[in-house]
């Protein structure tokens, strides 16, 4: 439903973009127009095709790694990064969600579950409420930020 994204924008009511991570490189593109309606599937498909066609090698120094550190370490690094380039973190923080396009092709459901949970930290942003993880063979799942609901089952 078109209105769903409008209602779920929470702290950033003007947010209209998604962050996509591919091979440790971060990209941002709009998915909603100025009225909050979803842009065409063709627009989104074109943006994703452009991202996937980027032939740069894996960025093993991705900023995503920092979000996998213990919270106090990440908080210190985040404060330093925010002082150096506040717009960078704001672009990620204000995104509707993070889409992780992984090249890994899990051979089984069990491998997919492990990969979705642990994955490659260079291709995640664990500080976001959820990362939509899509593997190289089309498996898809969510990696959820869990501090709000430890011990809860998500079904």
Key words describing this protein structure:
single chain, 155 residues, alpha/beta, five-stranded mixed β-sheet, 17% strand, disordered N terminus, disordered C terminus
Structure notes:
The protein is an alpha/beta fold and 155 residues long. A five-stranded mixed sheet has the order 2-1-3-4-5. It is globular, with a radius of gyration of 16 Å. Residues 1-8 and 151-155 have low confidence and may be disordered. Strand 3, helix 5 and strand 4 form a beta-alpha-beta unit. Helix 3 packs across helix 4. It has five helices and five strands. It starts with a helix and ends in an 11-residue tail after the last strand. 32% of the residues lie in helices and 17% in strands.
Q: Count up the helices.
A: 5
Q: What form results from the Cα inertia axes?
A: globular
Q: Could you give the order of the helices and strands? A: HEEHHHEHEE
Note the gap between the termini. Answer: 21 Å
Strand content: 15-25%
How many β-strands, per DSSP? 5
Main sheet: strands, sense, barrel: 5 strands, mixed
- The residue-averaged pLDDT reads 85
Poorly predicted ranges? 1-8, 151-155
Order of strands, main sheet, comes to 2-1-3-4-5
Share of helical residues:
25-40%
Q: What is the fold's blueprint, element by element?
A:
Layout: H1 2-7, E1 17-22, E2 25-30, H2 41-52, H3 71-84, H4 86-93, E3 98-101, H5 109-118, E4 130-134, E5 140-144
Parallel strand pairs: 1-3, 3-4
Antiparallel strand pairs: 1-2, 4-5
Helix pairs in contact: 3-4
